[in-house]
Amino acid sequence: MTRLRSAFLVLVLLLAGCAGSGAKPPPTLYQQLGGEAGLSAIVEDFAYRVADDPQLVGFFANTNIDHLVASLEQQFCAVSDGPCVYQGPPMDKVHQYMGIRETDFNRLVGKLQAALLAQGVPAAARNQLLKRLAAMHDDVMRRQDG
To answer: How far apart are CA 111 and CA 117, in angstroms?
Structure first.
């Protein structure tokens, strides 16, 4: 009889554990940003803001904008735990010798912040994305000397 009681107790504990594990995991940053559609809207908004800025647009004068937008969407997707893998070049190579100054970098970040706000991204998600992208700062700025 104690064997049956022990088996019953184990079964009850297992069922209780299963019932508690039904909690939904918190949304990923990718989901908080609106998934594929949200990232597409964010990047499009960001690209227009950069294009409208005479201090920044020159950095992209010889850039295929469609390719840039697709690369940014892929990178933002990967950085936000989405289903993408960034397949573009490393940040130090793609930005090498562009003459980017800290003020330019900060201005670009401001454009991204404005796009995130305009797209209704909540503050926590905005800050999390910006923090993850900020980790690339040193690579972007590494080879800025001519």
So the answer is: 10
Q: Which are the contacts of 6, defined by CB distance < 8 A and separation ≥ 6?
A: none
CB 46 within 8 A of CB 72: yes
pLDDT in tens, 130-140: 999 999 999 89
Q: Does 15 have pLDDT greater than 60?
A: no
> How far, in Å, CA of 125 to CA of 35, rounded?
12
Instruction: Indicate if the alpha-carbon torsion angle 94, 100, 103, 108 is positive or negative.
Output: negative
Burial bucket for residue 33 (CB in 10 Å: 0-12, 13-18, 19+): buried
Determine if residue 27 is left, alpha or beta; phi over 0 gives left, psi from -120 to 50 gives alpha, anything else beta: beta
Q: Give tens-digit pLDDT for 30-75.
A: 999 999 999 999 999 999 999 999 999 999 888 899 999 999 999 9
Tokens of 142: 């590494």
Q: Residues 6 or more apart from 128 whose CB is under 8 A from it?
A: 29, 32, 80
Helix (H) or strand (E) holding 40: helix 35-51
